[in-house]
Amino acid sequence: MLLRFAAVALLALPAAASAQSATFELVVDGKPSGKDVFTLSKDKHGYKLSSRFGYNIHAHGAEFLDEFKFSDAYAYLEGSMTDKGDGQVITSYVPNKAHTEMSISRTVNGSQTSDFFAMKSDFVLLPPFDAGAAQALLLAASQTSAPMAFNVYSPVAGGSDGISREGAPPHRPSVDAKWSKGPDVAGTMDGKPVTTSTYLLATPNFHWIFYADPARTLLQCDLPDVKIKYVHQGFVLTEAAPAITAFAAH
User: Fold this and answer.
1) Do residues 60 and 1 touch, judged by C-beta distance below 8 A?
2) Which of 1, 22, 65, 101 is the most buried (most CB within 10 A)?
3) Residue 180's CB: how many other CB atoms inside 10 A?
4) pLDDT per residue as tens digits for the range 159-218
5) What are the residues whose beta carbons fall under 8 Å from the beta carbon of 59, sequence distance 6 or more?
6) C-alpha distances in Å from residue 153, one per residue of 11, 46, 118, 159
7) Is there a contact between 22 and 52 (Cβ–Cβ < 8 Å)?
8) How far apart (Å, rounded) are the C-alpha atoms in residues 90 and 110?
9) What CA–CA distance (Å, rounded) separates 103 from 114?
10) Cβ neighbours for 205, distance < 8 A, ≥ 6 positions apart
11) Residue 127 and residue 153: Cα distance in Å, rounded?
12) Radius of gyration for the chain, computed over Cα atoms and rounded to the nearest angstrom
């Protein structure tokens, strides 16, 4: 079964001189539950992101490959999410030329279904457990100090843990989310102190807390509503995570 709860992003990325690769540990309810390895790199059409991750949660194991492309101007071009389990499922997210409509196509065992919905200009795709997509969104949002907002495709539904186990219904509406900076916190990378900034992406019912170093490298991302986090290899947060209310004060 698919494990889906968060989802889509038109991302603007700052220029990257070389490929950025990182490994993240996936933690659920305080227990190591999987791993995510991603690479963000330049290609002839712009930029590409490839994220491979797997996990075992509540006796449900899965392995995924997410691939997204961006133009030289860092506009989202196309992307796909592949569930590499039995009965491989490929879900493609392709906007029309005007970026006013998103096509979602799901291919299961050779059978394809498609749906469409209207897009906003600040529409974003933030897939579950994909630290690479979280890194790209962090870089996009950090380009300006002005208040920012995104329109997040976020189908949170399903089991008692709030996670959909059946996939993201294409007709589910996207949700407006605000981006805000929070307090700096203490952390270490490979045992050495690192200045750690925090940011909050918040919809009315769901939150992502991003932790980053001064170069906007993603160090950790918390999803407190479902007790999930992904942590950069070598990073340790050495103080309590900030409360959601702490971001409103900044």
Assistant:
1) yes
2) 22
3) 18
4) 223 333 333 333 456 788 899 999 999 999 999 999 999 999 998 888 999 999 999 999
5) none
6) 13, 24, 11, 19
7) no
8) 10
9) 7
10) 156, 175, 225
11) 9
12) 17
CB 136 within 8 A of CB 150: no
What integer pLDDT is reported at residue 60 of this predicted model? 80
**Alpha-carbon span 216 to 104, nearest angstrom:** 31
Contact 142, 134 (CB under 8 A): no
Amino acid occupying residue 18: S
Report how far residue 181's alpha carbon sits from residue 188's, in angstroms, rounded to the nearest whole number: 20
Measure CA 208 to chain center.
9
Cα–Cα distance measured from residue 134 to residue 127, given in angstroms and rounded to the nearest whole number:
8
What stretches of 145-204 adopt beta strand conformation (E)?
Answer: 148-152, 175-181, 185-189, 192-202
Beta pairing partners, 237:
187
Q: Is the pLDDT of residue 2 over 50?
A: no
- Counted residue by residue, the chain has a size of 250
The pTM for the full model equals 0.84
